[in-house]
Amino acid sequence: xxxxQSRTSAAPQGFGKPVRRAEDARLLVGAGRYSxxxxxxxxxxxxxxxxxxxxxxxxxxxxxxxxxMPGVIAVLTGADASADGLKPIPHRPVPTNPHEVPLTSRAGxxxxxxxxxxxxxxxxxxxxxxxxxxIADTPPTAHDAGERVAVDYELLPAVTTTADAAxxxxxxxxxxxxxxxxxxxxxxxxxxxxxxxxxxxxxxxxDTWVQRVTGVxxxxxxxxxxxxxxxxxVTLYAGSGGSGxxxxxxxxxxxxxxxxxxxxxxxxxxxxxxxxxFYPEFALVAWAARRLRRPxxxxxxxxxxxxxxxQGRDLVSHLELALDAEGDFLxxxxxxxxxxxxxxxxxxxLAKGRSLVSTVYHVPAVAMRGRAVLTNTAPTAPxxxxxxxxxxxxVERLVxxxxxxxxxxxxxxxxxxxxxxxxxxxxxxLGLVYDSGDYAAAQDRAVVLADWAGFEARRAESxxxxxxxxxxxxxxxxxxTGAPRERAEITVQPEGRIDIVLGTLSAGQGHETSFPQLxxxxxxxEIAQVRLLTGDTDVATVSPGSxxxxxxxxxxxxxxxxxxxxxxxxxxxxxxxxxxxxxxVELSGRRFRVKGTDRAVDLFEAAAALRRPDIPEALxxxxxxxxxxxxxxxxxxxxxxVCEVEVDAETGVTEIVRYTSVxxxxxxxxxxxxxxxxxxxxxxGVGQALWERCHYDADTGQMLSATxxxxxxxxxxxxxxFTTEISEVPSTTNPLGLRGGGEGGTTPALGAVVNAIVDxxxxxxxxxxxxxxxxxxxxxxxxxxxxxRTGAQDSPMSRI
Length: 800
Description:
Blueprint: H1 24-27, E1 44-50, E2 56-62, H2 64-67, E3 72-77, H3 78-83, E4 123-124, E5 130-136, H4 139-147, E6 150-155, H5 162-166, E7 181-188, H6 190-199, E8 202-213, E9 222-228, E10 233-237, H7 243-254, E11 261-264, H8 280-292, E12 296-299, H9 302-308, E13 312-323, E14 329-341, H10 348-355, E15 365-374, H11 388-406, H12 410-417, E16 426-427, E17 433-434, H13 439-449, H14 455-464, E18 468-477, E19 485-493, E20 497-502, H15 511-523, E21 530-533, H16 551-578, E22 585-588, E23 591-594, E24 600-602, H17 603-609, E25 623-630, E26 638-647, E27 654-664, H18 671-690, E28 723-727, H19 749-761, H20 775-789
Parallel strand pairs: 1-12, 10-11, 14-15, 20-21, 27-28
Antiparallel strand pairs: 1-5, 2-4, 2-6, 3-5, 7-15, 8-13, 9-10, 9-12, 13-14, 16-17, 18-26, 19-20, 19-25, 22-23, 23-24, 26-27
Helix pairs in contact: 7-8, 10-11, 11-12, 11-19, 15-16, 16-17, 18-19
């Protein structure tokens, strides 16, 4: 039976085994090879001169003092880049998957995609935008010379906040556009939603902002480029989300064929979406290497990373939910406005968040407007969950508020409105077709694991200690798409090794374990005998990378195709060696055996036999297989999180005391790795809920949280032990039943945490706390609620 037919079985072959990560043995002792670890003979070093202003006209750049320093080789500007024909970075922000809800422009509006030159030419539009690149023989010399480059700026008005950017009369980021709104789109049925609201017994509303955060991966970005004069090719060594995108975009910026570009990535120390898009520095080191005929290397300082890494979230949402008298959801409508920064790198978070606004609930009518605005801030891009955490947060806050308004429990109102498993496949009101799922079962299991029934006793015990205890839950739904093509090339080497060439690229997700784990199981060998080869575009010619839960979801399918071919050829080789009909040969363990006999050939013996001169013509070539498929149809992971908090009302400090998560991944290949990814995802989600924020000064555009002294990160001692469980309802859109498993911990966390805080403080009159729920904000919410009780001011959610 083909491996791809095994999804109909209870446990597909090779799935469900908790195997320890093989790569940790080298990574934990410092034997990894990250981008900055790569060096080439004769290399020189680059430093970027960056704008200290959020918006300014470039009057002149004087590099005289820098060029006079010993060891300085060159100072290149945007004028030099233009003269050499460098093109803008070819960002493709509009999603193109035919199975997603399109970003169709409203009548009278036209999308504006701002160009993104690698070096600013006439104007800078955010603090940290590069205006020159200094090349020197050592990194310290390059940095010292960078400080001597004199740049004459003419300051211009800046706009940083999402709400301000959309207002008439706001400073315009790009003069080529009539406003800062770069895309404006409608989706759903406005008339049906309006009719539902007109007959609704209850309407709840929430106007909120999901704040901007940054990915802060452990490894800062780094790039090394070399130009080969003989071949006319440039090689870029750079970790990223996927080498294939870097190859195509670099060729586009340099104006050369893709065949003239090679991109190599080894280990990548964290991504979370921030490294999936192309950065100016990749083009600049390659351009400088070609111009100077020497390898050029650049490594990002942490402060540079805070200023220039593509950031995440930053969504203003105005959403309202209509309900009937019994608590049934009737309609959702609203406006989401995404802040994309100075350059439109991606509209994916806006598009996916809007299309999944109804999440796991049956909402008969939805009307959503989605806008993106340009501001004088660093660009934003998809960040773990890419728009779905924002959508889940707003909806789950509305659902909790609805439960309080109607006197229902939070779990009951959700259970009443879940989409039934019998309704699958289910088309949501915006047009997405969900594959499969039992959303009520996931919530029911999470509630049991969290001991919801025993919560009131724990609340009473906390009150005796002067603490306010609360419990909150949040459901979520993911939309996994991503680059639809994946390719696997698997070769059985006679020396006793199996090589997998795959287009995805790990940033810490355990690929060196989970992918070999499957192939080892399928072919009956040890995991240590399987080698995964990724990241080099000369080896993995199709290299879409890792994003949107695509790696295992697509990689396992193409690997199964390739292994099926290996097994088919191996049976024919064994049949020739054993003088048996191929139909009488089967793979058992790692041996091709004639059925009903003890006559067999080892897998690697079969591979070695293919080198014999007498091998039949039809069997010539290695024992190998290729799987290459384009799979555009999405899958929809889902789950439920329950958070329990204690709040000190005197200081506003919130402590996470229990956290439970149930996540459906369709099929689990390596549960141990999945639990680890869930733990990391929870930390990221809770980190945003309580601490993290990219804080820009509204007047100057300066980022006020550009160091770890100012940007509060989640730490291990801030968390309890998590309770996580994997649900497995096979996806019907994937031949192996797989869904993505890396984003579920993050997506419901915002809603679960804030719902728990509000539940803890409800007796004090608190109805909402804005993100991040810092001690100051929680304390202020308590003070505001007490003021409301005495008539001093309005409640922060007085419209609910």
